[in-house]
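The following block was generated as part of the benchmark described in Methods. Ligand: UGB.
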Amino acid sequence: MASTLESTAEKLSTLGINGDFSSSSPNLQKNFHLLSPHQIELAKTLLELGQTHLFEHWAEPGVADDEKKAFFDQVARLNSSYPDGLESYIKTARELLADSKAGRNPFDGFTPSVPTGDVLTFGDDNFIKFEETGIREAQKAAFVLVAGGLGERLGYNGIKVALPRETTTGTCFLQHYIESILALQEASHSLAQGEVQKKIPFVIMTSDDTHSHTIHLLESNSYFGMEPTQVKLLKQEKVACLDDNEARLAVDPHNKYRIQTKPHGHGDVHSLLYSSGLLNVWRDAGLRWVLFFQDTNGLLFNAIPAAIGVSATRQYHVNSLAVPRKAKEAIGGITRLTHVDGRTMVINVEYNQLDPLLRATGHPDGDVNGETGFSPFPGNINQLILELGPYIEELTKTKGGIKEFVNPKYKDASKTSFKSSTRLECMMQDYPKTLPPIARVGFTVMDTWLAYAPVKNNPDDAAKVPKGNPYHSATSGEMAIYRANSLILRKAGVQVADPVQEVFNGQEVEVWPRVTWKPKWALTYSDIKRKINGNCSISQRSTMVIKGRNVFVEDLSLDGALVIDAIEDAEVKVGGSVQNKGWILEKVDYKDTSIPEELRIRGFRVEKVEELEKNYTEPGKFSLKPLRVKSTHQVT
Ligand code: UGB
């Protein structure tokens, strides 16, 4: 024991620490000899920050010593993963908890108004122009997917990016995102002839909940065709939970030698990108744009080319993608906030804050629909395009720290204790909050049918959504893909039959023909117009899947299922009359556990009865022109 005491005393004197600091925590003091000098420093910091309770239950030396060391490993992680460390976390928590207790409004002094931005109409000349500019710029972009969320509202057991975006082809979200980025890379390179093809970097932010599953999904699918070096995973750490208004850290209920932790929110993406050093690498490689997007919006890439075009044309430092929003719909509203001191900013105000803010600033009805039938505040779909140079400048100042908030659930009106522990959170769309007034912050609104169909709600909750509001479920997410593709083809002149109404998992949805294509077939409206010619028609019960890049559809009459695949060097003209029994949507009950979860959560599965499927594996020019026949037998 004497030598233990000696070595502890030595460590303390090397650190210049007076041993008295730990007199308030005898249990910790007794275990000092187990700790490294760095751990002793951390212990001192914790005690100074009023966290003595963390050691109250520590056992005598010799009992659970490994757990005690592991405790400090965790503290070291919490300290290093938060900008400016735990001390700063606790200080901010105390301030925010005091504001929350006092009922202070974070928007005090601000008046909301409707900001100006670009409202695009799919397929008009303006849209086509922005798409072309966007494709040119795309090779100067890096994509960042935030995919650390567990998706508790969806209740799906796996990671959300592994869910099929649609079940006609079974392509999962991650595959679709990667194929879209690769198609953009290729298209951008073709426009900028002569330049060396740049690989578009792709970052995925994961968390402990999603990291290993994401790696597994990528590795077991050869990165869906992307070069593994193009993809970087950045894992966000959770943050410490708080037990009370003094910001005392919560002991994990399952292990008294751990601090309880919870997710900090998608705002972590900025500090992770900053500390990774990637931003400087991108700048040195000549990149100009960073695009942030979320895990389950299967329509997003319909909006990306035009939105990059808007960023480049308007020279926006920040461009938020938005859709028309119904008043009180559960998505944030893009708002201009003007402070009494003259400051202004264009920022997302979360849906639960917009209505009270409006009421408190002279709009007695709060958030209501205007003449257009929509709220005048566009809905934030949380897909951001940031200009890299100004982004680096800003992060150099903030180290990627984003304004946080806290949302404690109090036990009673005295607001002195919480129902359960809370923590600080941050959102990636709050990035513009610290920007100087000269920053160019804008937004781009596109139609919801074209750009936004997230999968967030489980079937039970979706079925309870008030009529007229979006379900945001796996059912509606998939149907939205078919609807968008059908409407795009209609715009290009194809006679696409009207949808029928059907109910799946208690949700009434429009069922359009199941039309899907690979991103390399068409990324922009101009691509579609080039590849669709003559008089084409598609019946409601039809399915059409196009997988090859050089497939041209001309004078096609489709009533059934048609699947065309072709290698790059095979140019295929598809026309004539395709008629067969097709693929049918068969209803399934989501409570039926004999059916895979990814199917049950949509309430249907695709029954492949009959199809015309052609796969062109040799280079050359081909024509597929079936004749119209009465029987189900197809002559090609
Ligand atoms: N995510 C992380 O990567 N890490 C985290 O810690 C948390 C989440 P949700 P929510 O799309 O309409 C956002 O849970 O609450 C990822 C916007 O704040 O789906 O619905 C997660 O994996 C809101 O303004 O977000 O709200 C996912 O990819 C509105 O735009 C993403 O972050 C809304 O999305 C979003 O997580 C929307």
